[in-house]
């Protein structure tokens, strides 16, 4: 028996039970009462209304509501005042006379609805389609529930982002308040020091004035005093006069002291260069299906990247895509970074202070580059691209080697050839994530998954591709002849993993640990050191020791 408040939904409910707030399915319909009746209520109904005829579900064509439902189905959805008369087998469409006239006059396979009804009615097709509709309905309801849950999570993520923005703003306010207090304290300290100096000068002047007045009075009355004191008075007056002159020359007032505030020019410049407090992005959940989609390489092109100032053959160590479709490439041989437009033409370049090793995107207009300035000094150089120009930004100094670099949500991951470190954006060490000292280049380059849950390391010395959790736990180690001495690793924003190296190829690692070769030496590759895939343009870009970059279309 159905209970009150039941969530079950029926096509036709028992009207008598509804009056008692009970939800039960109607199994009969009385035309005289115009009410639906359940199995229980039909017994009472027959006792009180013996002459009323109640029709069961086997005679639902006599149910008025059911008849109304069927009446609505008889009419065309496009032309609601025209009944459906034909079926076009060429287009699998139900047609009224207006549909026939406008859209199907030239169709060959037009069949009357009555003929189709005879072929379908009572056949297995109705049962099958009914089952299919039920299944699809359940899937849609599940999808609707998932969508509602997604909307809730979306709102929760929005609220969280708002809280993070407010927290960041409060932190900035706290930092500015601290800077203001410290600067004001320095101002007060300086004022106090200068005031003390001026007060000391005042005391010195007053003391000198009193001494000079006293000796002056003695000189005015020297004739009345003992004559043997005249020389003593003269000498003391001479000394006091000289000392007073010296005091006058040393007085702070002669230097006209004042307090001046000289602001740090970088503070205002940094804040004015920012358009927002951070990047707003839609972080969609990555599915395993996305990871396993294999790129299909089609047309291949070589784009010339050598410029007149290059002294050596270009050696591309890093590739990044910025907003507007611009591409940045690191030229190791010429210690430079080059900006390419969407046609892969070099439109700007900038010289670096050392040999660039790797590069990662920080924002749509900013990248971070690891640079070997000298054998003992390794830095991370930040570069900004604005108005088709490259601007050198701030630097971070490190005590260990800086080779590979990756970025995820205000965190830098840097390899030292034998270890992987995690740093904040201001260069503060968070932790050493992983270390392998069993070779010279065991932690060569790194990459991070789109959701930040996985880190990938290529072990150049031992031909391995390692997958780590963020705490440094090795989740898998893949060794394959297809990437002997791997040099470059890249994770596409849709999750696919690419590797290139001394085997003169670019391979994609599938979800099962297998590899698929995307480009080889036949395409002109010579020990590729960098690979990048643009999900926006469908282009695979490969950098190596050449005057060109290889670009492969996959769409």
Describe it.
- The protein is an alpha+beta fold.
- The protein has helices at 15-19, 41-48, 64-73, 97-102, 113-120, 124-220, 230-250, 265-273, 288-292; strands spanning 28-30, 35-37, 54-56, 86-88, 93-95, 110-112, 300-304, 316-321, 327-331, 336-340, 346-351, 355-363, 366-372, 378-386, 389-398, 405-407, 411-415, 419-424, 429-435, 445-448, 454-459, 464-469, 474-479, 486-491, 497-501, 505-509, 515-519, 530-534, 539-543, 548-553.
- Strand 12 and strand 13 (366-372) form a beta hairpin.
- The model is unreliable at 1-5 (pLDDT under 50).
Shape: elongated
Structural class: alpha+beta
Q: Helical region count?
A: 9
Give the tally of β-strands: 30
The overall pLDDT, averaged over residues, is 85
Rg (CA only): 43 Å
Strand order across the largest sheet: 7-30-29-28
- Proportion of residues in helical segments: 25-40%
InterPro entries: 6-blade_b-propeller_TolB-like (IPR011042), TRIM45/56/19-like (IPR047153), Znf_B-box (IPR000315)
GO molecular function, one term: zinc ion binding
Keywords: Coiled coil, Metal-binding, Zinc, Zinc-finger
Protein name: B box-type domain-containing protein
């Amino acid at each position: 028996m159905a209970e009150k408040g039941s969530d079950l939904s029926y096509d036709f409910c028992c009207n008598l039970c509804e009056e008692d707030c009970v939800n039960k399915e109607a199994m009969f319909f009385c035309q005289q009462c115009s009410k639906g009746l359940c199995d229980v209520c039909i017994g009472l109904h027959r006792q009180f209304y013996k002459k009323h005829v109640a029709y069961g579900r086997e005679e639902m064509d006599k149910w008025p509501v059911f008849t109304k439902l069927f009446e609505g189905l008889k009419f065309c959805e496009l032309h609601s005042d025209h009944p459906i008369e034909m079926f076009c087998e060429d287009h699998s469409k139900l047609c009224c006379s207006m549909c026939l006239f406008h859209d199907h006059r030239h169709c060959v396979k037009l069949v009357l609805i009555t003929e189709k009804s005879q072929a379908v009615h009572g056949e297995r097709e109705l049962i099958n389609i009914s089952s299919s509709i039920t299944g699809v309905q359940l899937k849609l309801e599940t999808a609707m529930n998932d969508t509602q849950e997604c909307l809730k999570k979306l709102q929760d993520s929005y609220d969280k982002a708002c809280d993070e923005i407010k927290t960041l703003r409060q932190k900035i306010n706290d930092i500015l308040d601290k800077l203001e207090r410290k600067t004001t304290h320095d101002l007060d300290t300086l004022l106090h020091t200068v005031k003390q100096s001026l007060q000391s000068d005042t005391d010195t002047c007053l003391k000198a004035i009193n001494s000079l007045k006293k000796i002056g009075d003695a000189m005015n009355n020297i004739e009345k005093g003992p004559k043997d004191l005249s020389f003593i008075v003269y000498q003391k007056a001479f000394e006091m006069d000289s000392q007073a002159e010296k005091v006058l020359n040393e007085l702070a007032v002669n230097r006209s002291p004042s307090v001046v505030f000289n602001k740090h020019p970088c503070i205002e410049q940094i804040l004015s260069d920012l358009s927002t407090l951070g990047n707003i992005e839609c972080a969609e959940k990555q599915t395993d299906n996305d990871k396993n989609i294999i790129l299909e390489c089609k047309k291949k092109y070589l784009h010339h990247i050598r410029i007149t100032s290059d002294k050596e053959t270009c050696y591309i160590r890093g590739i990044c895509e910025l907003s507007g479709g611009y591409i940045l490439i690191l030229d190791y041989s010429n210690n430079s970074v080059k900006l390419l437009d969407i046609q892969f033409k070099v439109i700007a370049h900038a010289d670096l202070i050392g040999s660039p090793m790797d590069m990662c995107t920080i924002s749509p207009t900013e990248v971070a580059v690891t640079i070997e300035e000298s054998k003992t000094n390794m830095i991370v150089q930040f570069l900004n691209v604005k108005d088709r120009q490259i601007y050198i930004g701030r630097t971070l100094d490190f005590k260990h080697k800086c080779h590979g670099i990756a970025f995820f949500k205000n965190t830098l991951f840097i390899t030292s050839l034998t270890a992987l470190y995690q740093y904040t954006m201001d260069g503060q060490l968070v932790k050493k994530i992983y270390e392998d000292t069993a070779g010279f280049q065991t932690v060569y380059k790194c990459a991070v998954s789109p959701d930040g849950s996985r880190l990938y390391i290529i072990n150049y010395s031992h031909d391995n591709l390692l997958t780590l959790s963020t705490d440094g736990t090795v989740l898998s180690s893949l060794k394959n002849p297809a990437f002997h001495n791997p040099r470059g690793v890249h994770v596409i924003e849709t999750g696919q993993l690419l590797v290139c190296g001394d085997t003169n190829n670019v391979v994609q690692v599938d979800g099962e640990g297998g590899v698929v070769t995307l480009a080889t030496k036949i395409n002109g590759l010579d020990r590729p050191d960098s690979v990048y895939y643009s999900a926006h343009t469908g282009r695979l870009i490969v950098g190596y020791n050449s005057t060109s970059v290889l670009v492969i279309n996959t769409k």
